[in-house]
Design brief:
- The protein has about 140 residues and is α+β, with helices and mostly antiparallel strands.
- Helix content is about 30%, strand content about 35%.
- Strands 1-2-3-4-5-7-6 form a seven-stranded mixed sheet, with helices on both faces.
- The longest helix has 15 residues.
- The chain is globular.
Length: about 140
């Protein structure tokens, strides 16, 4: 199992997991080196990020296929991403999750701190914002 930056030839497999953004936008993210993949023979997980205010790396999505969960791959993907962001000179990383999802436990375990929340339009649960200092 390897964790690496996605390449354009991984796009089709990534789209089977990540249908949250249009295909053209996903391709742009891959070209901008904003997508990591967990891969064995096929893509088994993805981590996609963007830049909040064009200044702070913001984790948009981390997803690990069910059969690979609970084995430390998500933690390893986060560690590799955070290390890369630190090496690129960023001091913080951010993410968010809905209050009614369990992901907040994962982020807090990794040292993320709740920084606030809001109710997006047409979402029933509050969206919690998390921040982690890298340096």
């Amino acid at each position: 199992m390897t964790i690496t930056l996605a390449k354009i030839n991984d796009k089709q497999q990534i789209e089977t997991i990540d249908s949250h953004i249009p295909s053209e936008r996903l391709e742009e993210c891959i070209r901008n080196r904003q997508v990591y993949i967990l891969k064995e023979d096929a893509v088994e997980g993805i981590l996609r990020y963007s830049l909040f205010w064009q200044m702070i790396p913001f984790l948009d999505l981390i997803y690990i296929q069910e059969s690979y969960r609970g084995k430390g791959f998500g933690t390893e993907m986060m560690a590799q991403w955070e290390k890369a962001m630190n090496e690129q000179g960023y001091s913080y990383v951010m993410t968010s999750t809905q209050a009614d999802e369990d992901a907040w436990r994962f982020y807090e375990k990794l040292g993320y701190e709740k920084a606030g929340g809001f109710f997006p339009p047409e979402q029933e649960a509050e969206e919690w914002i998390y921040l982690k200092r890298l340096r």
